[in-house]
Amino acid sequence: MDVFVARQPIFDRNKAVVAYELLYRDSAANFFNSEIGATKATSILLSNSYFNFGIEMLLEDKRAFINFDKVLIKNEVPLLLDKSKIVVEILEDVIPDKNFMTKLKELKNSGYTLALDDFTIDYPYKEIIEIVDIIKVDFMLSSKEDIKKIIKKYSNGNKKFLAEKIENVDEFNNAVSLGYDYFQGYFFSKPIMVQGKKIESLEISYIKLTNEINKEEPNYKIIASIIESDLDMSYKLLKIVNSYSLSSKVNSIPHAVSLMGISELRKWASLVLIGELSFGKPTEILRLSILRSKFAELLAEKSSYKSKKHELALVGLFSMIDVLLQKPLDAIFSQLHVSDEIKLAIKLDSRSEFYPIYKLVMDYEMGNWEEMDKDLKLLNIYRNIPDIYIQAVKTTDDIVKFIKE
Fold first, then answer.
1. Tens digits of per-residue pLDDT, 366-395?
2. pLDDT tier at 57 (50, 70, 90 boundaries)?
3. Angle 357-362-368 (CA atoms, 0-180°, nearest 5)?
4. Domain named EAL: which ranges (predicted)?
5. Most buried residue, 174, 185, 227, 250, by CB count within 10 Å?
6. What is the pLDDT of residues 322-346, one digit of tens each?
7. Is the dihedral of CA 362, 366, 370, 376 positive or negative?
8. What domains sit in the chain, N to C, each tagged with a CATH number?
9. CB 362: neighbour CB atoms within 10 A?
10. Residue 89, CB half-sphere, CA atoms under 13 Å: how many?
11. Cα gap 166→148, rounded to integer Å
12. CB atoms within 10 A of CB 47
C-alpha cells in the first residue's frame, strides 16, 4: 500500500517557512481510492511518515499540520505524537459532542496546538472556536467582507489566524494588512510583480555561462575562460569537483571542466545560477526549485523520458525564476538561452514535449491526486511514486545545504 506524501509550506508574515501541511492519500487501488475515509487516510499517513519516511526528514526543524477527524481525536491518537512537532488540525465537518470536547480539552491541557481547518463565517460550533489556537480561513470560500469580519470577531490576543488558499501577492498583502499571522497557498509560485530586479543586475558571468553551456555545441575553452574570470564561480566549481572521490585534487579550471563533462556542467551551472538568484530570498523558493528539478529528473528516469532527464531537471529548476527575478518569464528568457520546449513546459503549456512529466510534478506537489492518476496512466508509470518523491526531498536538502555553505 502506497501513501502519497507532499509538503505544502506555511509562511509567516516575513515569508519564512514555519511549518508544512502534510498532504496524503491511500493509493492501494489503482493508485487512488476516492472512497477512503479521513480516519484511515490519516492513520496510514502517520504510520508511513514516522516509520517509513522519517518525520524529521520530512519536516527538518519545522512543524507538521496534520488533519485529525473525530474518530482519531476520540481515540487519543494525537497523544502518541510529539506535541512540539505537530499541529492538530480539526476538520471543519466534525460535529462535536461531549466526549469529543473532553478529548479536545485534554489535548489542549497537554500542550498541543489546535487548529481549525477551512473556517468560514457561518461555522456553527462556538465551543471548538473557543478552544483552538489557530483558525485557518479559506480565502476562496469567504468574501472579502467575511475575511475582515472573522478576524475582527474572533481575535482575542491569544488566537493566530492562517490565511489559506492565497493565490497572489495582492491577497497576501491584504491578509497581512488585516492582521493574519500565517499564510498557505500558491502565491509564491507566481510572479510577485511585473516590475522588479533587472536581470542585468546579476553577475553577468553566470548569464554568459548559462547561455554558452546550453548551446547545441558548447565550447569548453569559452566555458573555462568564463569561469576563470569570476573568482566566486571558480571557487564553487573547484569545490564541487574536489568533493568527488578523486585520486588527486583538481586545481585547474580547464581540468575541472573537462572532468565534469557537459551534462554535469549544465546541472552545476543551473544550480549556481539559481543559488545566485535566490540570494536574499526565502530559502523555500530555492528548495522548491531544486525539489521540482530532482523530482522531474527521477520521474524521467522511470519513464520513456529517460533520455530527456537533464532537460526536465532544467524545467523544474527554472520554474521559480519569475518569482526570484520578479519579472515575467518571457522577459527573463529573452536573455537566457533555454529551448522553447523548456519555456512552454514551465508555463504548463501542453504543446511542450516535457509537459506530461512536469504536470505530474505539479499535480503531486499540489495534491491533485485524481489528475495525477491520469498523468501516471498517460506516462505508463506504475512505480512507488512516494519513494521517488522522498528521494528527491533528501537530495534537495543535501544540495541546499551545500549551496548555502
1. 778 788 888 888 888 866 788 888 889 888
2. low
3. 110
4. 1-205
5. 227
6. 777 767 777 777 766 678 898 899 9
7. positive
8. 6-189 (3.20.20.450), 214-404 (1.10.3210.10)
9. 21
10. 23
11. 15
12. 12
